[in-house]
Write a structure and sequence with these properties.
heterodimer, A: 382 residues, three-stranded antiparallel sheet, two-stranded antiparallel sheet, globular, B: 370 residues, mainly alpha, MetI-like fold
Chain lengths: 382, 370
């Protein structure tokens, strides 16, 4: 047998070996440079630094933290801060984006034009610029003593947004847990009732179960445990607020920027998803005498969802990745904390590796969840 | 065009109407068709009216358009919170647009910006979509480099530490695309290849870059890159960021191009194989031209996203348009007028992105018309 570069199998193997060899050589070269440079700078590699005292203040955290804690603790706080802005941001952006997307299709000219302006203006300006803009506006708000009070108990000042809150004790958490279990149980009961309905054509009501499981039982537990649900409004003490829930200006600015920016993209996805549903579906619903809102909710949206979910997933991923812009306004998310760590310890490789690990994990998590949801709502072909 | 407006309207008798009559019919159909619609319209008009009045008061009626001299901003301070201080824009315009580029030489970055715009406009025309376009790009980019650096008689050398503002934004975006695009094509082909080692290398590259935020890549470029290099090799910060952008753009463009490759029918491959074309001839002459035509609208959208993303270099301290804007208002006399400067810079970004998005939409409309 003759071996030549013209032979398809042989040339394939040959080129693969060449490419892999080049890549390996480049990585080896970079690696040897790095090892040399690190030894010159007396930086030891490895994750031992995670156990050392961080000495870095973190202003805004829902987890207990003090500067004497370890770097590991600081990283965990950073991850929780990233998740806090990403999860709430995704929920709010989805709600606002869906509303704006539907508004763009409204028969009301003024409403649809306004929605179009909202989308166009937000999409064509860099997110970082919008973030800085919101942050500057936050800083320009009056001081805590002259805070704006749009609604009783809600204060907006240069200290951020302060909302009334319910102090959560252990008893409250148990009640909430029971209610959450109730929601899940209601979901499955409802599903079962629909199966029964399909079998014998008898409609069955699910709301009594919902009332019992989500309201009555947790309410009884609350009475038994003596949980207090008193809303405590924020009070001004000295130059700052005590009690209540405070959203720091950095967090609030980041949240507004992420939500408005992403909602503009989601609005476009929702609009094109709805438009992708054939017009005949609307006509058929109308012929059956269904109202437009009913047709939208039960006929069109479920079909539109199939088109909407894949691009929506990438918007959720984008929002999560964009939350790393936090570093520009000083909100301490994982990237910001890793960056401070990097400057303090010189552990550049480890810090960047941690950032990458965290984001790859979150990305995989979101993709996994959305793929599962997508498979659930996919068209079942018979 | 919209689904929801497609409710069959009972045909009206064709009568000659006056202009006012037309307006009333239009208003009835589009603003006051139903009771909920009327309520929405009235509510929106109320909110819009209030917002517009305060906007006009702030941005026009109470605004200060000029100050006697650069350090005397008393007039602006007097109306703080009530009116805009547009005087900051002409005062800082040259710095925002060109950064610390030598003042006498600033016609050079201005010319570079014009060449960039001419290049974009030309590339958007269908008649320009041919092989020679790559040569035009190479020539234009070389000319821009010559203008910015100088170093020949008549053009004194300007080091890239002094570059700033709009040209830097355009350079980062354009060079990122010019080099990221071929990289993206190679990676997309690699990802579709049936050679397992090359396929997995390309998947790894794309997923790693797309899985992490751009900021972490930029940190890597600014902090870790010096660690990767042997002693004595010191690459300029702008160039390091540029490399990060090329790698970033390559990964995202690869995914878009891969979508185009998947849309090319199998028969095209078979036909090319039957003609006995080699792999590169097949891809270059048959497959890629079709694949890229399929994905021009999403490619333009990727360009828009990429153009906006160049603003992230602010975080690693490179003087692009956003950074010069932020730096311009560090000046104590003008410190409190950042909103005006941000609005101005937002307009510049908006003009570029809006033009691109309009263009992408017109292409889509042309394609669906065929």
């Amino acid at each position: 047998m003759q071996i030549s570069l013209k032979d398809k199998q042989f040339s394939g193997l040959f080129w693969q070996i060449v490419v892999v060899a080049i890549v390996v050589a480049i990585i080896a070269w970079l690696w040897s440079n790095t090892v040399h440079n690190l030894s010159v700078r007396r930086i030891s590699t490895g994750f031992a630094f995670l156990g050392r005292e961080a000495g870095m203040p973190i202003a805004d955290s829902w987890l207990p933290y003090s500067p004497t804690d370890t770097y590991l603790r600081a990283f965990i706080v950073g991850i929780s801060n990233t998740l806090r802005v990403a999860v709430i941001g995704i929920v709010l952006a989805t709600i606002i984006g869906t509303l704006v997307g539907i508004a763009r299709l409204s028969a009301n000219w003024l409403l649809s034009r306004l929605a179009a302006v909202y989308v166009e203006a937000l999409r064509d300006i860099p997110l970082l610029l919008q973030l800085l803009f919101w942050y500057v506006l936050m800083q320009g708000l009056p001081a805590a003593r002259q805070a704006w009070k749009p609604v009783e108990g809600v204060y907006l000042s240069n200290r951020g947004l302060v909302l009334p809150s319910v102090p959560l004790e252990t008893a409250n958490l148990w009640v909430l847990l029971l209610a959450a279990i109730g929601v899940v149980a209601t979901y499955f009961i409802r599903k079962h009732l629909i199966v029964l309905h399909m079998r014998d054509g008898q409609p069955r009501r699910s709301w009594p179960y919902a009332l019992l499981l989500v309201i009555v039982l947790p309410g009884l537990l609350s009475l038994v445990l003596g949980a207090s649900w008193r809303i405590t409004p924020p009070k001004l003490q000295g130059f700052n607020f005590v009690d209540g829930l405070t959203l720091a200006p950095e967090y609030f600015a980041l949240l507004i920027a992420l939500v408005t920016y992403t909602s503009a993209f989601i609005a476009e996805i929702v609009r094109s998803g709805i438009q992708a549903v054939p017009k005949g579906q609307w006509d058929a619903a109308k012929a059956l005498g269904l109202r437009r809102s009913f047709a939208l909710q039960h006929i069109v949206l479920p079909q539109a969802l199939r088109v909407i979910i894949p691009p929506m997933t990438s918007q959720y991923l984008n929002l999560t990745k964009n939350s790393s812009l936090a570093v520009a306004v000083g909100y301490q998310d994982i990237v910001s904390i890793a960056n401070t760590t990097l400057n303090q310890t010189g552990q550049a490789i480890e810090a960047i590796a941690l950032i990458m690990m965290v984001f790859l994990t979150i990305s995989l998590g979101i993709s996994f969840f959305m793929n599962w949801y997508n498979a659930r709502i996919a068209l079942v072909e018979r | 065009m919209t689904v929801m407006t497609d409710i069959p309207i009972t045909p009206r008798p064709r009568v000659q109407r006056t202009l006012a009559g037309h307006a009333i019919v239009w208003l009835r159909a589009n603003l006051f068709a139903t009771i909920p619609s009327t309520i929405i319209t009235l509510l929106l008009l109320l909110v819009l009216g209030k917002a517009l009045i305060s906007l006009v008061q702030w941005g026009w009626l109470n605004a200060v358009w000029s100050v006697p001299d650069a350090s005397n901003t008393a007039a602006c301070r007097a109306v703080r919170g009530l009116g805009a201080c547009w005087a900051v824009i002409p005062e800082k315009l040259r710095f925002i647009l060109f950064g610390t580029y030598p003042f006498q030489e600033q016609w050079r970055p201005a010319a570079a910006v014009l060449i960039f715009i001419a290049l974009f406009v030309m590339s958007s025309r269908r008649w320009a979509w041919r092989k020679e376009l790559a040569l035009v790009w190479a020539g234009a980019l070389a000319l821009i480099g010559l203008l910015m650096w100088g170093g020949i008689p008549g053009l004194p050398f300007v080091s890239q530490d002094r570059w700033g503002g709009l040209p830097v934004t355009l350079i980062l975006a354009t060079f990122g695309l010019a080099f990221g695009f071929p990289l993206g094509i190679l990676v997309a082909l690699g990802r579709r290849s049936n050679l397992p080692a090359i396929h997995s290398l390309c998947v790894l590259y794309v997923e790693l870059i797309r899985g992490v935020p751009l900021i972490s890549l930029l940190f890597m470029a600014s902090v870790m890159f010096p660690l990767f290099m042997p002693d004595g090799v010191n690459i300029d910060k702008l160039l390091r960021a540029q490399i990060a952008f090329i790698l970033f753009a390559g990964a995202y463009l690869a995914e878009v191009i891969r979508g185009g490759l998947q849309a090319v029918p199998r028969g095209q491959h078979d036909a090319a194989d039957a003609l006995g074309l080699s792999y590169w001839k097949k891809q270059g002459l048959i497959i890629l031209p079709q694949a890229i035509r399929h994905v021009i609208p999403p490619l333009v959208n990727t360009f828009i996203a990429f153009f906006k993303d160049t603003s992230l270099v602010l975080i690693i301290g490179i003087f692009d348009l956003l950074t010069t804007a932020k730096t311009a208002i560090i000046d104590p006399a003008w410190q409190s007028f950042s909103v005006e400067v941000y609005i101005f810079v937002a307009l510049i970004y908006f003009v570029f992105c809006f033009a691109m998005s309009r263009y992408s939409r017109s292409l889509e409309a042309q394609d669906s018309a065929h």
